[in-house]
Design goal:
With about 260 residues, this protein is α/β, with parallel strands linked by helices. The chain contains eight helices and seven strands, in the order ααβαβββαβαββααα. About 30% of the residues lie in helices and about 20% in strands.
Length: about 260
Amino acid sequence: MIYAPRPTSEDLDAKYRYLLPHGPIGVMDPEIPEIDGPRKRQMFVSLRRFLPRHPCRILDYGGGDGRLLEEFVERGDDCYLVDYSVRVIRGVTKLADTLKGVEPGAQFDIIICSHVLEHVFDPLEVLSALRGLLVTGGVLFVEVPLELWRSVPLASEPVTHVNFFSDVSMQYLLARSGYSVARCTIGEMPLSGNRCSVVRAFARNTGRADRLPLNGYSRTLQLISPNLATRVGWLMRQPSRILPAVAHRTSRRHVGA
């Protein structure tokens, strides 16, 4: 699903360039307690088994100041960033503002694309370009918010999230972009003491794309108007939501009585 009316690639580029003088994008303020620790730890642990050698060349596309790479830096990996940020954390090298600025021939073992595809004009184009930067057998990590649940997402501030994904549509997109999908699931992301529903995927550049699955239309309808089986499956994938859901349902019955 996409935002409408559709902003152009130039519109989105202009937005993020406009924001730069008004404050650093995604820069960690040393005076503010860190809120991304559990998130970066979760990503590091999930990617660790895919690390092919030591050190690896790792690229974070759209990673703000590169904070999610901190544990890879500590491990001794060569870490790089593509984003509009002016400052980056120690141990991370900024290559360019956009993929067009990356030096031809650059190759990486791991590419991270965390909470980026919901912002871009053409996710297919972005994922295809990232695949061109992956070594053969290299791994792409993708994570996006899952906002298709019981309603169509309505943003209070336009031109922020312009694409909305399900697990099935993400798998379809990755296959269309030429990847072999190792895993694509619905899960939870820790953030500032809360948990956010996400679609999380791991895909390889094998030189041979997966056969295209269904495009996700029926899955989108299923998430927007979930039946009992879909609701149970949703809760099983996100255990932290089980108790609040039961408490909410119990309180509704109590009020109704």
